[in-house]
Specification:
The protein is mainly beta and 188 residues long. The protein has one helix and 14 strands, in the order ββαββββββββββββ.
Amino acid sequence: MLKASNAAGSWSKPLLIRAAKGWIDPCPFWDDDGNAYLVHAWANSRSDIKSIITINRMSADGTKLLDDGKMVFDGRVAHPTIEGPKLYKRNGYYYIFAPASGVSTGWQTVLRARNIYGPYEDRIVMDRGHTEICEFSYSFDGKRFEKLGDKFKAQPGMWIGAKVGLFSLGPRGARVYGFADYDWFRFQ
């Protein structure tokens, strides 16, 4: 964990909040009730565990974990190699966006629950199929595209998801546009 009073710098020295074998892709989350959490996945190569997502309680300042964590999702059957979890809250639901099954054959999974610890229902919201991975970007004029990470609000009432693991609807290099409607989200 690093701290700065301004994103432009200067940053503190890195602080290790937990020495852990096999943890990957940690993502902090501050809930609207003041509680803080850290969600992460597991690397099989370092821990002999994979396709699991764990949530830990975290101090509000992000400097320490307050528990040993709870497994909130087991993707070993339907979502192998689930990783890169990003935790959000919207309209009373907790959502975890996480790509699964690897870069060459994978898909984007979204998990949803009313309680941060689950139970989570899962849905594949974007499937790679036979298309190529795209760069998630936005444009206000349809001509100049800015690369984008994590989440943003594209238009009033349209909440768009996470960058990790979203896939294009067309061939590599093509600027093919489309959308996919789901009761949880619309991807465009």
